[in-house]
Design goal:
The structure holds 2 protein chains of 2 kinds.
Chain A: H1 15-28, H2 33-40, E1 49-60, E2 63-70, E3 82-89, E4 92-99, E5 111-116, H3 122-127, E6 138-145, E7 159-164, H4 168-181, E8 187-193, H5 202-211, E9 215-221, H6 222-225, H7 232-236, E10 244-249, H8 251-264, E11 270-274, E12 289-293, E13 298-302, H9 308-314, E14 332-342, E15 348-349, E16 355-357, E17 361-370
Parallel strand pairs in A: 7-8, 7-10, 8-9, 10-11, 12-17
Antiparallel strand pairs in A: 1-2, 1-6, 2-5, 3-4, 3-6, 12-13, 14-15, 14-16, 14-17
Chain B: H1 11-15, H2 40-43, H3 46-66, H4 69-93, H5 99-125, H6 150-163, H7 194-203, H8 205-211, H9 216-221, H10 224-255, H11 260-286, H12 296-299, H13 304-314, E1 317-319, H14 322-327, H15 334-339, H16 348-362, E2 368-370, H17 371-384, E3 411-414, E4 417-420
Parallel strand pairs in B: 1-2
Antiparallel strand pairs in B: 3-4
Helix pairs in contact in B: 3-13, 3-16, 4-5, 5-11, 7-8, 10-11, 11-17
The chains are: A alpha/beta, B mainly alpha.
Amino acid sequence: MEPLIEQGAQPQLPAVGRRLMAVAKSFTTPHLPDDYLALLDPRWSLEEAVATVERRIVEAEGVVTLVLRPSFPWPGHEAGQYVRVGAEIKGIRHWRAFTVTSDPGHPEGLVSITVQRVDGGLMSGHLTDDAACGVGARVWLGQVEGEFTMPPGPVGTPLLLISAGCGVTPIWAMVRELERRGALHDVVHLHSARDPSRFVFGRPLRELAGRTPGYALHEHHSGADGRLHRQDLDRLVPDWRDRQAFLSGPGEMLDDFERHWTEHGDPALLHLERFRPSIGLGGGIGEGGTVTFGVSRVSAEAEPGVSILVAGERAGAALPSGCRMGICHSCIGRLKQGQVQDLRTGLVHGEPGQPVRTCVNGPCGDIEIEL
Amino acid sequence: MTTTNGAPRHAGASTATLPPTLAGTGGPGHAPADPTSSNPLHRLTPEEIERIGDAFQAIHDEVRADLGERDVTYIRNLITFQRRLAVVSRAMLTASRYPPAWLAGTLGLSVAKVLENMELGHNILHGQWDWMNDPKIHSSTWDWDNVSTAAGWKHSHNVVHHTYTNILGKDKDVGYEVMRVSARQKWYPWFLAQPGLNLFLMAFFEWGVALHDFDYEGIRRGDPEARSAARRELKALGRKAGKQMLKDYVLYPALSGRHWRKTLAANVIANVARNAWANAIIFCGHFPDQSYVFTEAEVAGETRGAWYVRQMLASVNIEGGDAFHLMSGNLSFQIEHHLFPDMPSNRLKEIAPRVKAVCEEYGLPYNSGPFLQQWLMVQRSILRYAFPGGDERPKAEPYVAPPVPEAVVPTVEGVDGPVVAFP
């Protein structure tokens, strides 16, 4: 049975090591050899991938790139993918997903993530704080995941990349990948930042645009000109309909552009990366209702679009949580009555006794959950 | 991927909720207050019971909100200490042919096993540390150095025992279905064997615990579901016990080479010592004279407040020093543990004065006594109730805080008379 708690990825061990561990386990049962290795050095864990912060690079105000040295051979990633990162804050382990911003196949096996501090954000605040997560700090790494990647091989069609804010991270990884492949032939990149100084990776991208004719960069400054809007598209990129498009940014912007492609373009050419944490905080899909937490004895009012988890936390319940994006199953609770709605897809489901992920489901009317 | 084996997801937390069969719908909660009743629960008015419930709930919520780094440090340090002790003891036992090494190794291993089962295993499997979100210290991943499987124990202990504590016919832990430990239990002839069985349970307690989760009633009835569940559980138990015995009785003795017999003896002694200790602590938690048992009728329609009161009346603390509390897994704070099964064990001692204050306010007993006295009481009950009849033992008086000794302020002679010595 899969444990009901979010864990780091399990590092790959060579066959000899695996056999050795199986023998060692007969001596340590019911615990693992790992539990005893950890007495010597927690980085020697064979159960969970651990990494140490090697370097910190301040990219812009409140944006920090953490260069990580994994304690195991990095299994590799594709440009645009993300990895879940775990960190301990006040003794409690938290997990969030971050785009891998380093190039695949770093010779020393280093990887990096780029984190933007969000106001009141627990994890982003921790990771961007030099005192809390400085050089030498330890984090946990989950599996490399994500479908938001370039097709392999030569890129035939012209490309359109649209990013906003810290949504630039996977786009940045892709641009670097294209440069490495020598495929920056006809790429238009629209980036929206509040002002020029807040353009994460702005300097290297501007330099790249200066020396590469095949890469055109349009900067949009929402502080002065308002939000990047779908109406701007015809003016900035008249041939947008013919391009493979990769979009990464806040939910409303993506929704706006997705409608535009559905109505006026070819949705098959559109690829989206939705950034968290936008699920379950309110707005969007969802009907709302009252959630009764049986074990915590808390009753919470969930507005439309608010997840069961967020509603419970706002009402003061201490609930299990993990990735907050429907991946890790840490937050599962058994539904006792009522129905819930998946806030990502709108699907209404649930019957008594069914386990539901509280981070991506909102109540559909009044429900009771065993948490 | 979710729980399909009946093990509770938040084992500790789920015990705090009311079972559906008992949960009241806001009704009176129990028979009306009866000032002459011997059970303090029945003397209380429904309003008093609800106020008691609120008071306890407030303690729980306050501690829950305060959990943090201090607690994390406590449990991690304890785990590290226990593992180091186990490693050092095992290493020493490889030289078991030297009597001092044998003695130190046996003693160390016994202590390591006691700590692992009591303060770590029992409490982690309760979900007391689930809030840390650490997959290494979590009720869904932890397994203990004991022949019973974590899943089986979590069900029989966390769900059955903690919900239906001391309700006759519901709580399998009242005499473990094979002993008569209260005058209110009906006598059957097989109880005549319980003094012998008691000695057996002391030595092989882990096996008793492992076997008592089986649904014997269902198996006897021939219920196919109960039988297939039993087969599954038996298989899991066999796997777990096999690994345990291979480790303790084959692999480690083998490391001592020609002197394997001495190491084997040391491991047997450590397991038996752990069993006897766990048995003593656990029997002292609910079987001493002060503890109340309940019938199903008495708790019908029980409210949250009445649940709390029952937990308190059914549990008995053991008095002792800090080392004793640690070795008992803080089950010496049985009352506090039963009120808040999911509260980290290092907090129980801290809240004890607040629980006592509630007892004093509402005229309730706070059952407790020194270890030897409690243990002998339990042994006496096991011997007496093996035979039919027997009276209920006298219960504890309502708790009254001992008078605070008047503080003596040392003074020295000053020019204008005495002044405080240490201002």
